[in-house]
């Protein structure tokens, strides 16, 4: 039952302005859905609203198994296995990245985590992403470079083991090496989880097998298809779709 | 129970006679009393109208005074002790039920070490008895009896507190802790502490504890005087959590000679009103002061906290970092003074105030003053007021962390610069305490 993230007829508005209209999507574990669309088309609003951001009003339904996400608080949604990788994650002064990851894991997976083992694993994962160990001692996103922020988001995703992940432009602003590392991490995650990938970059398809592509424009999905839809966009641009 | 109620020459004479003090101390007390009577109440710093000097016990003989019964301690205080996980013997001590604190067993080896090095570490009463000349030489030289109304009051009726002398070049590795060393009278209302760090010495002194100190009396007016001699360094750490009926009005000051360093680390929680501005008179060339304070004010509380640095010599420097948290309608204020005397040069002074306000009912103010009588000094002051950002909370919650936990993480992050400076066990206790304050459990 928990193998599906179902979003049905979702409307999202902010300050009485509708930013997402009648959005429906079913994501199965193991699937990768790409959402593309011009800037300002409502992609980030959709992601934040699904995570339960306080600025958005939502109507419709979003469920994981029997659980109605829309009635849950953000932390409860995370506990249901939903994860959002933020496009611009905020800095949290005084809270180190290591502390955040530890608190998150303890909150989601329960008490009884072996701290030593836990830190060994995080450090290993950080290494795979090309992050220095010291980053765990730094305050979350405080003074992080653009690339470090994205990688830190990915590191958290890798540690929390979520069922469904939404990546909001995790691939933007990365150099070629980092891009590859992050793409491979998504690929690994997608073997066990369902992924929604918001991106502007068709190159990511070289690394990840994409099941569905949805074109988002002015808050609505105007077209859905298989991965070759990406090529069409590359050719024609959004305007002609 | 013999109590000296009300304030009169007779009371002061009785206190002095009871303690068998030398004549000069008795005269000093009486002079201080007449100064107290003449001085006006402070105009700034908080509302003192609820304070009735006639309703205060000016002295409790230690033995009789402490015959308080455990069953008379309010349930709220007992509950707090339990939540903090404090053993019952210690709970009774903190509540003033138990007179003696048996510390010899735990701290015996430290005490032996310091005695061997010639360090004097006694209660102020005992210090006066054993080293009257040393006390006489320094007592009242940093905080004079006419400094302010409450310093005068303290000088007239003081009891308890600590007396420390560290000989030249002696460095004490472990902090000296008043709380474990001296019995309950030390946390009395009018404690008087005098620390003399001789040339090139180092000592770290810690007073207080994170547990709320329960007292039925509503005034705490302490005086702390520190003399930092040439090249010496003193760190004075206060961790205080008074019960919420207390007016906590403390005068703390250090006189720092050439190349000496005074470090004030000050944590203030509880009390109805706290007015406290640790100060440093930088008297010798190259003297330094570093102040770090944190205050927390909840419902019905006011923390009027600050720091004063008086630069009287060249190449002196001061750093004042003040942090405050106000919640549930509490008020925190920073009141600071940086004063630079005439004819000095190459002065550096930096003040940073950061206030965190947790809800719309709470408040924070800043009253800095800079008085410079010499030109070309590097003086800076910055103040920030912030609220816990909803975006930060949302971010932490999106990681599975509950709202209340997220808030605590952010607040603990805010106070980290202070907890980092505290011995480990205090830091842990402090984080725990804040968790309870935030949940409104205290």
List keywords for this structure.
heterodimer; A: 241 residues; alpha/beta; 6-stranded mixed sheet; 4-stranded antiparallel sheet; 7 helices; 12 strands; 29% strand; B: 442 residues; 2 domains; 11-stranded mixed sheet; 8-stranded parallel sheet; 14 helices; 21 strands
Could you explain the architecture of this structure?
The complex is a heterodimer of chains A (241) and B (442). With 241 residues, chain A is an alpha/beta fold. In chain A, 34% of the residues lie in helices and 29% in strands. Chain A has helices spanning 43-51, 74-79, 97-109, 115-128, 146-160, 176-190, 228-236; strands at residues 4-14, 17-28, 32-36, 57-64, 67-68, 82-85, 92-96, 139-140, 164-168, 194-198, 212-217, 220-225. In chain A, strand 1 and strand 2 form a beta hairpin. Chain A starts with a strand and ends in a 5-residue tail after the last helix. Chain B has 2 domains: 2-276, no CATH class; 391-442, no CATH class. Chain B has 14 helices and 21 strands. Chain B is globular, with a radius of gyration of 21 Å. Residues 62-67, 96-107 and 180-187 of chain B have low confidence and may be disordered. The interface between A and B is medium-sized, with 29 and 23 residues.
